[in-house]
Specification:
Helix content is 84%, strand content 5%. It has 165 residues and is mainly alpha-helical. β1 and β2 form a beta hairpin. The radius of gyration is 62 Å and the shape is rod-shaped. The termini are far apart.
């Protein structure tokens, strides 16, 4: 039996095979659409339940809005724009201080080098002084010996000029 020869009698009306195929296709399309719509509404229901649960679990945002407004008012009251300018000025001052500090450190290094040079010069002068002091001491001793010899010579001449004495 082929589809063209098949007939169905429903309520006194005869339906032939081609009509049955069209009606079955139409019924399956409508039932698929009904099933898809049912699935869609089921998913929408699940989403609504999830959103409702999330809304219940979310904290109330109104206190946060009030707090945010209070913070914004404090920022405006404290004139942060003015503070921004002061921070820029402070940054410039800190940069200047840093440059001056570097100059002082450089000058301190130069002064330290000068002090080291002066220490070396002082040590040389002290050594020369010691040499000169030793030479003067040696000269004084020589002069003292010379004086004794001259005195001894005078005594000898005095003794020779008057033998009785």
């Amino acid at each position: 039996m082929s589809l063209e020869e098949t007939e169905i009698n429903v309520g006194g009306t005869r339906f032939k095979g081609a009509h049955i195929a069209v009606v079955l296709a139409f019924i399956s399309t409508i039932s698929g659409g009904i099933w898809a719509t049912s699935e869609f509404f089921s998913r929408v229901g699940v989403l609504e339940d999830t959103v409702a649960e999330m809304q219940e679990s979310m904290p109330d945002l109104e206190p946060l809005k009030v707090e945010l407004q209070a913070i914004q008012t404090k920022i405006e009251d404290n004139d942060l724009g003015h503070l921004q300018g002061k921070l820029a000025e402070l940054s410039t001052l800190l940069t200047t201080i840093q440059a001056r500090q570097q100059e002082v450190l450089n000058e301190a290094a130069e002064s330290n080098a000068k002090v080291i040079t002066m220490e070396k010069d002082w040590i040389e002068i002290r050594n020369e002084y010691k040499k000169m002091a030793d030479a003067i001491k040696g000269f004084e001793e020589s002069v003292e010996r010379f004086k004794r010899e001259v005195d001894d010579l005078w005594k000898g001449l005095d003794a020779a000029s008057s033998p009785l004495g």
